[in-house]
Amino acid sequence: MSSEPSDMIMEETKNKADYSASSIQVLEGLEAVRKRPAMYIGDTGLKGLHHLVYEVVDNSIDEALAGHCKNIYVTILEDNSIQVRDDGRGIPVDMHEKEGRSALEVVMTVLHAGGKFDKDSYKVSGGLHGVGVSCVNALSSLMKVEVNRGGKRYVQEYSQGKPLYPVKEDGTSDSRGTTVTFKPDTTIFTASVYSYDTLSARLRELAFLNKGIHLYITDERSKNEDGSFQSNHFYSEGGLQEFVKYLDSTREALIPEPIYVEGSRDNIMVEVALQYNTSYNENVHSYVNNINTIEGGTHVAGFRRALTRTFKSFGEKNKFFEKLKIEISGDDFREGLTSVISIKVPEPQFEGQTKTKLGNNEVAGAVETIFGETLQNYLEENPKQAKLIFDKVVLAATARHAARKARELVQRKGAFSGGGLPGKLADCASKDPDESELFLVEGDSAGGTAKQGRNRHFQAILPLRGKILNVEKAMEHKIYENEEIRNMFTALGVKIGTVDDSKALDTSKLRYAKVVIMCDADVDGSHISTLILTFFFRYMKELVEGGNIYIAQPPLYLVKKGKDQMYCWTDAQRDAATKELAKGGSEASVHVQRYKGLGEMNAEQLWETTMNPDTRTLKQVTIDSAAEADVVFSMLMGDEVPPRREFIERHAKFARIDV
Ligand code: 0RA
Q1: Of 202, 224, 377, 472, which sees the most CB atoms within 10 A?
Q2: What was the pLDDT predicted at 478?
Q3: 609 CB contacts (<8 Å, ≥6 apart)?
Q4: Whose CA is nearest to atom 14 of ligand 1?
Q5: 245: Cβ–Cβ under 8 A, 6 or more apart, which residues?
Q6: What's the N-to-C CA distance of the chain in angstroms?
Q7: From the CB of 91, is ligand 1 less than 6 Å away?
Q8: In the chain, where does the domain assigned CATH 3.40.50.670 lie?
Q9: Cβ atoms within 10 Å, residue 373
Q10: Number of C-alpha atoms within 13 angstroms, CB side, residue 254?
Q11: Nearest CA to 69 among 28, 14, 13, 121?
Q12: CATH of the domain spanning 7-234, picked from 3.40.50.720, 3.30.565.10, 3.30.360.10, 2.40.160.40
């Protein structure tokens, strides 16, 4: 150990004369966080709420990556407080003489103090914003930290980040570790209810990304039938190799085991796993220091370069491309490819719109070298698998040629080119994308009602006929031949790159900032909305990531008595409305209508409940976890029926996926 914890406190407060001066600074820091929480944790809604948990868990992950901790326990307590416990060394509690307070207090109350302790191991983990536990503390109405260390137990509690008392010794302990419990401040957050599924998805992801660590989650808010709490345990021995298997669990694998490599170069740790499946989609998931880099970056570039270069030269050497009449392209090696790239780098430079694009140039070479060598060895040592892959690659090249022709045909007919809007589109008057909305409506009849009910100044309607194509199973050229899909491209004014066969989406001419999927509130409607969502997720991911995609929420019930009526979206609302309208009288006089489809509402009702910005609720589709969304979509839209049924049953009557 190169530095004693007390040295570090010294560094923190070197130039500060006394306790009061540094205390004031701490308060100013906490105040800044409370004043502008979004600057530190992204937002103060559901996302930010969950982000608090990730920040705290990240500290324990770091302790585990440093080799001192094996188990991390996350518990959602009954009142939506969160507890995170680990069996690490425990945060140091040494008293700093000049400061008169313990290292523990500094870690918990000084912004960015956490990572400065262990100089030997850089902080690898760290949420998207990497702000540390003190920031979570500032945004909590109550926080408590318990440290078991050196045979003793220490405690301190805080309110809005301010200590309620100095760190105190509280008995003995024969275990080691840190426990942080916090209650998010309801005066800061607009959401307060934790999602077990969202937290589970992140812990599962962390288990795959950091093999060998046990992560547990328990939800004390709800009991199973046998009286136990809902809980889960995530642990991966194989790391990314198992991650890829999980991602492809409902797809058909081409080779028996994923190709896997782990190595390090220039202090950069690289881990890559890939598998080919019989689908036509590419799924890359990339991570830097456990952060999902949805915009990619130098690590992904290095991976792609190695893939193309190695496959190309191996294929040429072994005469796999001889019968092919067209030039092979990088895309051909990525059809039906599921891959995960995870690197850990000391000083990541994040760029891009959402700061999720890695900029460090030295990383590209490290990934390219480490992965390229392994891939080449794999192909040489596994000729049977190589043959399977190259047969698919050659097929992909042929299909790409067909797809390009289909795309060009579409382009000549008008789609992608911006001119000539679809005949079925009832466009809005406004030409300002920022205020314009496009409603994608299931069926011509509901489309007709929506046309009557809308505000034609800023709302456009595009009816979609019946079930749209399942893009999860269709080859690319089929997708461009599909009329409904072509209409969506044309109406939206977006283009798929046609110059270099790259699939990047050009959204510079996007005609509507909001795209609203409006389907019946029944099982069929939910299936159709999932099909449309799958299309956006696979072919217009940029719009999903940009927060442009919404799902309309038509009511489920109309509760009526005489002239009084109330719309209801849940069974609980329906029951409450029935009671209220009965006003102590008989509930038999109250009429409940269950809306099965949009078609049962007239134009005015549809406007009032579902389309009017002043009274409607829209659900914005966001990608919390791209990996989880990938698994859900491939499962929902794939061939295997049992997992789909299980998912739909678990998510009750009208499964809506939280992507
Ligand atoms: C720095 C030094 C030491 C422990 C930790 C940090 C630590 C922090 C957290 C946060 C959550 N769980 C944690 N566990 C440990 C200890 C240094 C030493 O013992 O020599």
Answers
A1: 202
A2: 85
A3: 554, 555, 567, 601, 615, 616
A4: 90
A5: 258, 275
A6: 43
A7: yes
A8: 403-554+619-654
A9: 14
A10: 22
A11: 121
A12: 3.30.565.10
The reply to whether ligand 1 has any atom less than 6 angstroms from the CB of 63 is: yes
Task: Kindly report the backbone phi and psi dihedral angles of residue 519, in degrees, each rounded to the nearest multiple of 5, phi listed first.
Answer: -125, 165
* pLDDT at residue 145, rounded to an integer: 98
pLDDT for residue 199: 97
Q: Is the CB of 86 under 6 A from ligand 1?
A: yes
pLDDT, residue 412, reads 64
CB 438 within 8 A of CB 491: yes
Nearest CA to 86 out of 60, 122, 49 is that of: 60
The CATH class that applies to domain 403-554+619-654 reads alpha beta
Please give the pLDDT value at position 55. 95
Ligand 1 atom index nearest CA of 180: 11
> Of the listed 257, 524, 600, 608, which one is catalytic?
524
**Cβ neighbours of residue 134 closer than 8 Å, sequence gap 6 or more:** 29, 30, 107, 108, 109, 110, 111, 112, 113, 114, 161
Q: Token match 């809902």: residue?
A: 230
- Inter-residue contact 81 to 182 (CB < 8 Å): yes
- CB of 118 sitting under 6 A from ligand 1: yes
Question: Is position 226 annotated as part of the catalytic site?
Answer: no
* Predicted local distance difference test score (pLDDT) of residue 116: 44
Distance (Å, whole) CA 242 – CA 503: 28
Task: Considering the chain, tell me which residue range(s) the CATH 3.30.565.10 domain(s) occupy.
Answer: 7-234
* Residue 60 CA, ligand 1 centroid: distance in Å: 8
CA nearest 107: which of 5, 222, 204, 15? 5
The count of other CB atoms within 10 Å of the CB of residue 139 is 29
Q: What is the percentage of the chain residues whose pLDDT exceeds 90? A: 67
**In the chain, which segments carry CATH 3.30.230.10?**
240-401
Neighbour count for residue 655 (Cβ, 10 Å): 18
Q: Write the pLDDT tens digit of every residue in 111-163.
A: 876 544 444 445 555 544 557 899 999 999 999 999 999 999 999 999 999 99
User: What single string gives the DSSP state of each residue in 344-384?
Assistant: E-SS--EESTTS-EE--HHHHHHHHHHHHHHHHHHHHH-HH
**pLDDT value of position 2:** 34
| pLDDT score at 11 | 32
Q: 438, 460 in Cβ contact below 8 A?
A: yes
| Residue 271 near residue 261, CB atoms below 8 Å | yes
- 44-48-52-57 Cα dihedral, nearest 10 degrees: 180
**Is 520 labeled as catalytic in the residue annotation?**
yes
Check if 368 has its Cβ closer than 6 Å to any atom of ligand 1: no
130 CA → ligand 1 middle, Å = 17
Residues in the chain with pLDDT values less than 50: 1-17, 115-121, 127-128, 415-418, 499-501, 652-659
Please report the pLDDT score of residue 233 as a whole number: 98
The predicted-structure confidence for 234-251, as pLDDT tens digits, reads as follows 999 999 999 999 999 999
pLDDT for residue 476: 79
Q: Which of 63, 205, 271, 442 is catalytic?
A: 442
- Is-above-0.85 flag for pTM? no
- Under a CB-based contact definition with an 8 Å cutoff, are residues 161 and 134 in contact? yes
Task: Match domain 240-401 to its CATH number in 1.10.560.10, 3.40.50.1370, 3.30.230.10, 3.40.50.150.
Answer: 3.30.230.10
Q: Identify whether the C-beta of residue 443 lies closer than 8 Å to the C-beta of residue 465.
A: yes
Neighbours of 475 (CB within 10 A): 18
